[in-house]
Specification:
With about 350 residues, the protein is an alpha+beta fold. The chain has a single domain, classed as Catalase core domain (Catalase HpII,  Chain A, domain 1, Beta Barrel), CATH 2.40.180. It is about 35% helix and about 25% strand. It is built from nine helices and eleven strands. The protein is globular and about 55 Å long.
């Protein structure tokens, strides 16, 4: 495929200022995780995003036939064992109020060349800014405000102007035609059933020498299932009573104008697209999400083999945040697990 765009480390390079902002953000991540059990009123430290698990299941990916050699030489087995985690995107686990309808569908390959490969996917895959510094300053402000609010509500009022200022900077950077279109469509479908959404990655990944985006597309699942019921209840009922399947799709980067790497406010257009295979979830294939070992599972894409590593500036920010979040959370939860 001579027409495909090749990977270059330049796609990942951060400026000195972006690295300085990242260092500050990582301190805020550590402090948030240390306070997360108290913030969400739980007895364990949560993730820094997608904290609420709806369900975790075993599944299998049956690989398609007749796709190009550059894909076949990477995914060279007939099938793969998977773990899937379904989640809500909020930082804080909300036990009472209404949840934001932003969801995660994370895919873990258990046996990819004797290693694991992880792909966290979401139902709203566009990012509000292409500026690492704008995102990092807002992200740091949110973490700092939530931690301070938990420690001392009155003192947290001093952090509010900083949060609002950085929130305004993020909001002013948000507009794009694709983002506006996707937001409008998203609001129209905000009450739809979890498994009726298409789930895609934020940013792209290497596929050997090339670059791809991954997505999961449902097969004939009604958006009206569980209408008016909590998503967690609907998801668990559906998985307990149905075998279900999804298509795992790959889009390839052919040119940077139609498939930009570092413009996450724009959806890819006119990209070569292939069905990698079919994800099959058996009926009632649950793992116990209350088991600390299951709760502590990570779906960190930066632990992938080099040929499947995330690509792009924002992805590099996420790499450091993942590492800080996972390390802090696992250290805290390990101390609380029964020996």
């Amino acid at each position: 495929m001579n027409s495909l765009q090749k990977f270059s480390p330049e796609f990942n390079r951060l400026s000195p200022q972006e690295n300085a902002d990242l260092d500050k953000a990582l301190i805020s991540v550590q402090k948030f995780i240390e306070s997360s059990a108290a913030i969400s009123e739980l007895n364990y430290a949560t993730r820094d995003a997608h904290s609420k698990t709806y369900a975790t299941v075993k599944a299998k990916l049956e690989i398609s036939e007749n796709f190009p050699d550059f894909i076949a030489k990477i995914f060279d087995q007939k099938d793969y064992k998977l773990l899937l985690r379904f989640s809500n995107a909020n930082l804080v686990i909300n036990k009472k109020g209404r949840e934001i309808p932003v969801y995660g569908f994370s895919v873990k390959f258990k046996n990819f060349r004797q290693k694991e490969a992880n792909f966290p996917l979401v139902n709203f895959p566009l990012f509000p800014t292409n500026s690492p510094s704008v995102f990092l300053k807002f992200f740091t402000s949110v973490n700092t405000f939530l931690v301070t609010k938990q420690d001392n509500f009155l003192v947290s009022a001093l952090d509010l102007p900083h949060l609002l200022r950085n929130g305004f900077s993020l909001a002013s950077d948000m507009f794009s035609a694709d983002l506006a279109k996707r937001t409008f469509q998203f609001l129209k479908h905000s009450k739809d059933f979890f498994f009726s959404f298409k789930y895609s990655g934020i940013g792209c990944y290497r596929l050997g020498d090339f670059m791809m985006k991954l997505s999961v597309e449902p097969e004939n699942i009604s958006s009206k299932i569980g209408r008016g019921e909590p998503q967690k209840d609907s998801i668990n009922w559906f998985l307990a009573s149905h075998e279900t399947s999804f298509n795992l799709m790959i889009e390839m980067c052919e040119n940077l104008e139609n498939q930009p790497i570092n413009n996450l406010k724009k959806e890819w257009k006119k990209s070569p697209k292939f069905c990698l295979g079919k994800i099959k979830i058996p009926k009632a294939a649950f793992l116990n999400s209350d088991d600390p070992a299951v709760e502590n599972l990570n779906f960190n894409p930066f632990e992938n083999p080099e040929i499947l590593q995330p690509v792009g500036k924002i992805q590099q920010l996420r790499k450091k945040v993942y590492e800080a979040s996972i390390h802090t959370r696992n250290e805290l939860n390990r101390k609380k697990m029964p020996k």
